[in-house]
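Dear support,

I submitted the protein below through the web form. The confirmation email said the job was done, but the results page showed an empty box. After a refresh the structure appeared. I'm attaching both so you can tell me whether what I see now is the final result or a partial one.
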Amino acid sequence: MIGVDRLTRVLTDYLRDQGFSEPREKANLLIQQLRERNFILCYRGADTYGFVHRTFLEYFCAVEIVNRFEKQKFINFEQLRDEIFGQHWQDETWHEVLQLVCGIIDPKFTGQLIKFLLDQASYSIDSATVNSTFKATQTINLFLASRCLAEVKNNQSIYDTSATLLARLKKLASFEHIDWTSKPGLDPDIWRTISKAVKEIASLWKDDLNVQLWLKGVLKSNNWAAKQAAVIALSNHWKHDPDILSILIDLASPENPGNLSGRREAMRALARNWRDDPRTLPIVKNCIFDADQYLRKAAVEELVRNWKGKDDVYELLADRATNDPSEEPDIDYHPAELRYRFNVRFLALEMIIEHYPTHPKTIALLHDRAINDPDEQLREWAQQQLEKMEGGRQ
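What the results page shows now:
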């Protein structure tokens, strides 16, 4: 924030230096314009102003830092590195500013700043303590470095630094010391970090054939988190590669029962990117009857998202709303009163109410679920929806 007197003085001095007549009057008009018409400034009370959107603050802060470094020479590179980046890289509220600085200055300096970030504290894992000791904050330097690299127009100018960052991200994505076959309840922090590392790799090096090959290799590993992220990355960035479609069809197959997260993402990718391929819809329908509750739930979502106009979709949803064997999920990070929402019968019924409210069988189906569903919460919910629908028709 800035006091109104200081803001007026700064603008007045600037306008005077630019040769404007009556600079103070024009400064007041400019403040009024920025506040009332452009909505850049807002009054914060106590004779102070601030930016309406944080984006303006971040941009002007970055420009000021670059100006002091490149033009005014008030700070040298060592000060930029140690006092600006060194003191603020752990503070996420500064990350956008630091990234913007990297996108403006000469790439050779950006490369040195990225190397500096890579030299800061990072993760440390071992097979015995990875779940209990790992924290996502241990990798904050690595992901900030990747975002700074993304700001560089041509990262070939800092190839060595780019290659070092890529290697570090690959190592993070692999989490080599985890026994994936014995850790199904992987810490969410680790899962999110691995997924984020794969996403960064695919985004920053999407033109690198070796990265595409690496991602394909990830699909053959036991690293569930990386595999799930790799499916998304390949379908987003390389969906025109004919090999990707074949890989996803194979991955979504019921012949991969030990790879449920990979199957779910492969099925989703097929539904969203290749829904017109004649092999896709049968795969989704097959998943609706799979033994895994979460795969069935994802398949119901994709069926409605992509094929709700198909003739047999209503009947498939009605079957799942009546016959799906969903049970309370074995998870402890959702409130008990919301766990019924992971029930496939609930989801199918919700989709029917939302997309087929006037179908001739919908009211009867709701009556049946309100009386006969084995889940008490779902019965209560179905009764509430039934009352709303019948009340609306009176």
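Response: this is the final, complete result; the empty box was a page-load delay. The two ends are 56 Å apart (CA to CA).
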